[in-house]
Amino acid sequence: MTASETRLGFPHRPSPHPTPAPQRAELLADPGFGRVFTDHVATATWTVDRGWHDAGVRAAEPLSLHPAAAVLHYAQEIFEGLKAYRQPDGSVALFRPALNAARFAHSARRLALPALPEAAFVDAVTALVRADQAWVPEPPASLYLRPFTVATEAFLGVRAAEEARFLVTASPAGPLFAGRDAGLTLWISDELSRAAPGGTGDAKCGGNYAAGLAAQAVARAHACDQVLFLDAREHRWLEESGTMNVLLVTADGELLTPPLGTILDGVTRRSVLELATDHGLVPVERPVSVDELRAGCLDGSITEVFATGTAAVISPIVTFRSAAGEFAVGAGTAGPRTLALRAELLDIQFGRVPDTRGWMVPLR
């Protein structure tokens, strides 16, 4: 058995105060995004002398951290995002959790945190969903899962912490961009950057998102839904949006997206690239400049643009704004390829079509 295949076991100790069924039903009727949480968490502890231990599913409750905990001072923290989906027969399935497990391990290595074995990651999220299965809402909502590891050692010296804690919390979730089905408007940031070569851009860590909040505030000041980051070196090449990968459909049938390196290897991004040929598109990963984006939208060689992410799913982008002005994508509405890809992906996730690729992992 390899290190990635190591299992921990996450025994369930039920919460002594579960949410009453009527209150849970009321919360599930309109969960919003990221505001409602289930009764339990999955958790495990790591120390340099014992490795991973004390794993289980327990009642969700506030954490106790020493004021000198490394995560509070040096942001030694990583997280993931994935979902569980209610199926037509009432069962529940996870979407490609092994990819999240592998990315979580990659992020851990980049942030000098202990890498949770990938099999243990899948066991943890499965155990939590099983414990809180009643919290999985009916479509179109889903159960958003947030695994994370934080450095908990109380020590103010600058080095990798020798104690850490892994947790998974769960939140019933509706659409991230509720009421924005017509499409998103993005602000092109030519000053503030998200990541640089050699940095943490391809790791899913809180610092990347905190560094993007100022740019997101600028975007909202210009009545935009999110920010589109450019590269840090030249402020010329497309990278990703604040919480999403970005893809472009061309008039000659290509599905373009910036290459990996300083951007996140999104699970939804990867899935859409694999679905592309079903929709008559050739997936291409290459650098795309902001000038090419602007010119292509204006002359019609770029016909659609959309963003992908676990929370965003596939969200059409219909307008870009920047200090240089504004331009629309196509007719300024969600494009047919975008909508078709979104429909197919959601149909797979909610079990409305056969899962021919083996992406869904049923809860046993």
Describe this structure in words.
Residues 1-22 are annotated as: Disordered. Keywords: Amino-acid biosynthesis, Aminotransferase, Branched-chain amino acid biosynthesis, Pyridoxal phosphate, Transferase. Belongs to the class-IV pyridoxal-phosphate-dependent aminotransferase family. This protein is α+β, with helices and mostly antiparallel strands. The protein has helices at 21-29, 70-74, 97-110, 118-131, 206-221, 267-275, 290-299, 336-349; strands at 40-47, 51-59, 77-79, 82-86, 92-95, 142-151, 163-173, 184-189, 226-230, 238-241, 245-250, 254-257, 282-285, 302-309, 313-322, 325-328, 360-362. The chain folds into two domains: 3-173, D-amino Acid Aminotransferase, Chain A, domain 1 (2-Layer Sandwich), CATH 3.30.470.10; 184-349, D-amino Acid Aminotransferase, subunit A, domain 2 (D-amino Acid Aminotransferase, Chain A, domain 2), CATH 3.20.10. It has eight helices and 17 strands. The strands form two sheets. Strands 8, 9, 10, 11, 12, 13, 14, 15 and 16 form a nine-stranded mixed sheet that branches. Strands 1, 2, 3, 4, 5, 6, 7 and 17 form an eight-stranded antiparallel sheet that branches. The longest helix has 16 residues, at 206-221. The chain is globular, with a radius of gyration of 21 Å.
